[in-house]
Recover the amino acids of this structure.
């Protein structure tokens, strides 16, 4: 690709969506398995323990917090593994390589501490920027939105991954804002539809008064999270590959060979 065509290239939102759904469709079983084992399953275990101990309540006490905290930390760590594995598997598919869970999960486990650190820095800095004014926080979040694949795929350091993400997203952030607004609206519509299953907001509020209803809501939330993970993390990997195509002038097959 020439320098002129690279400069003229623009991020295509439709291309990101279509590629993401195509990748997920080709690898539905392994993607679902990773998202379930390292996303939904820890949440199900936590819910089961809390239910067994009678801790399903809108006002959790110290005992519920004491039990939930370690499970929450484990779930967070598992989510980092799932995120890394799904990104690697997506890039492998884009490279035309066989998609294998085992090497992706092994690399995810090895990178778990840096990924936790990257996530903490990301949310802390974006949150801190939002405290002063909302717009800087949003712009920082957009600038760093592909920092995780930059770290996972290119084996950069944490802060180098943030710099790499900022460089890749430069010139595309308004389109990225449109992309994430579409996602937010879609998620909002789905949540509204879910509330409708409980008879609207008033029926939802009444049903939440019972422990059994809380369990149903949490189960639905876990299912929703499973679906989101299966689409969001591959979508971020596709977005990263598209930004590299625009900025670096490389195709999917020229991305780093993460399984070498």
């Amino acid at each position: 690709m020439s320098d002129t065509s690279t400069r003229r290239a623009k991020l295509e939102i439709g291309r990101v969506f279509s590629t993401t759904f195509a990748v997920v469709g080709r690898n539905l079983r392994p993607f679902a398995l990773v998202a379930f084992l390292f996303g939904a399953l820890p949440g199900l275990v936590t819910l089961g323990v809390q239910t067994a101990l009678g801790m399903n309540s809108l006002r959790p006490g110290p005992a519920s917090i004491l039990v939930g905290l370690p499970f929450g930390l484990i779930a967070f760590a598992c989510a980092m593994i799932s995120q890394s594995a799904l990104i690697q598997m997506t890039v492998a598919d884009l490279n035309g390589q066989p998609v294998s869970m085992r090497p992706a999960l092994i690399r995810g486990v090895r990178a778990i501490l840096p990924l936790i650190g990257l996530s903490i820095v990301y949310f802390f800095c974006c949150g801190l920027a939002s405290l002063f004014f909302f717009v800087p926080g949003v712009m920082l979040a957009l600038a760093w939105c592909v920092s995780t694949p930059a770290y996972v795929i290119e084996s950069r350091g944490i802060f180098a991954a943030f710099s790499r993400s900022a460089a890749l997203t430069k010139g595309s952030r308004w389109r990225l804002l449109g992309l994430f607004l579409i996602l937010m609206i879609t998620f909002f519509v789905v949540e509204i539809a879910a509330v409708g299953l409980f008879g609207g907001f008033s029926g939802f509020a009444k049903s939440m008064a019972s422990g059994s209803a809380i369990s149903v809501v949490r189960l639905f939330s876990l299912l929703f999270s499973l679906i989101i993970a299966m689409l969001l993390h591959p979508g971020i990997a596709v977005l990263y590959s598209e930004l590299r195509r625009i900025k670096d002038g490389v195709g999917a097959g020229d991305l780093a060979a993460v399984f070498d």
